[in-house]
């Protein structure tokens, strides 16, 4: 049994807890939280909730620690720190800071002799893998990534900061005609506006000026001004009833040419349709926790990403079984 | 430069030749054929065409030999044999015989200290990879593979063996409504007939009985009797004009559930739309040739499949560059 620790018990931590339950070769050892453990109720019976400060006492009882904090401030600190004590996995998703994060985790993990796998999830993660495979197969081609339909936490938060807004949910939606143009091999050059639209569901504070709020959202730089944005005003009850899920997904496509004169076209498409963004990310984290455990058993140390890990490490099945049933 | 040898110069061999041209870190060293080399004209200028018997003299001048023969009789013999002299890659696609082929290639390659990568292409190959990743991520789920729309060589050959048939092309077509049911998360149980239809374009011999030919095709066991099959009779000119391509493709889907009580659904879908089946397969072979070369440089020996190879080995880019641009 691979003994899993969860550090941080929000949506992602709860998702990992559920994923561990689905994998017969894993068991949850403990959950670590910054909150008062007495206030944190988890789903698994008989598993302790501990203070984050007590984690170091668990080094002999945990094979892989899955870090479920945020990328902005938690993970840049936590992943290198805990890589000094545990094999670790995180879902660090600030694309621009990945090289720096990689270097920090690599240094810590090499020193401790542990394995650290960073940026695991679907983007970065499964989408990245599909970009790499497709690029290696079709060197002469063009990449496209579309996100959605799904909830963007960052954009929802940005709307909530607008004066007069009580609560909000924002959906990122890929433009169907742009997707179709890519699928048809037209290799279009697409602007930001042509790729995605943004749909916002907003609950106003009492007495707020709807027109003013809508204008402020639609013209918000970086977040909305480059997109066709729709704003719907709804009641708090409607928001709760119709928009409490965290769905997401998207499409990675590569269109490329082969032949002596590039006479043949090919399209590789990978897509995800997810009811729960955090639970799917958690499921990817659990699979890579298995890889971290096995690599560590083999004596590997240092930082890895999804690019560096042979697919067979993710599966509970033996190489023989995989070749027989899935190849 | 990775020096590539091509063994067998049919559609696949020609495809590899084109793929090598697209990869800046590869060069074609020689093509080996069972035919009289004087009769084989290749596309690349200045590259020798040699007799297959002369291959052993090329051991110092070829880094990876790509075997482009057929799975029925060529590869079971050739891959182990040439693994005694070269790093080899093949596209062995007789799923049921993979374990046996693996064992033979593994023994030969371990003895010679070479790397052999077998069953590389899209199915087996990229489709297998996607089945593995999706199963590891969503342990509670259901797999679906659909093929087409594309030309099935085996089914076209079967039609050609019918008395009264001069020439034929058969297309395998996925049933759109079945695909949609899977995409909608309905987890349908699908019979052979519900998944694919078969469309045949047939050129008759002069004086042949069309009704009899059609009946014989539609009732042919294994090949057509379990499918809804359509037969079109066309002229030789029409066949040449409209059906001379070798397109193919397909879909690998996994629908799965997460959450404490499986309350959330997810769909992972991978699809290919290929103008040229052999050229795409060749492009995958070229990418894995790079992996074979690198593994060999690292001192690895023995048989591998796509499951055993970390994605980064396929790309000409460095790990640093990959993390920066594709993660």
Task: Describe the protein.
The structure is a homodimer of 327-residue chains. By secondary structure, chain A is an alpha/beta fold. The first copy, chain A, is 35% helix and 26% strand. The first copy, chain A, contains 11 helices and 14 strands. Chain A has helices spanning 11-22, 74-83, 98-112, 126-137, 153-160, 176-183, 192-195, 210-218, 236-242, 277-297, 319-325, and strands at 2-7, 26-33, 49-51, 64-67, 87-89, 115-117, 141-147, 150-151, 165-174, 196-204, 228-233, 248-258, 264-274, 302-304. Chain A has a 7-stranded parallel beta sheet, with helices on both faces. A 4-stranded mixed beta sheet of chain A has the order 8-9-10-11. In chain A, strand 12 (248-258) and strand 13 form a beta hairpin. In chain A, helix 1 crosses helix 10 and helix 2 runs parallel beside helix 3 (98-112). The longest helix of chain A has 21 residues, at 277-297. Chain A is globular. The first copy, chain A, starts with a strand and ends with a helix. At the A-B interface, helix 1, helix 3, helix 4, strand 13 and helix 10 of A face helix 1, helix 3, helix 4, strand 13 and helix 10 of B. Strand 13 (264-274) of chain A pairs antiparallel with strand 13 of chain B, so a sheet runs across the interface. Chains A, B: This is Meso-diaminopimelate D-dehydrogenase. Chains A, B: Keywords: Amino-acid biosynthesis, Diaminopimelate biosynthesis, Lysine biosynthesis, NADP, Nucleotide-binding, Oxidoreductase.
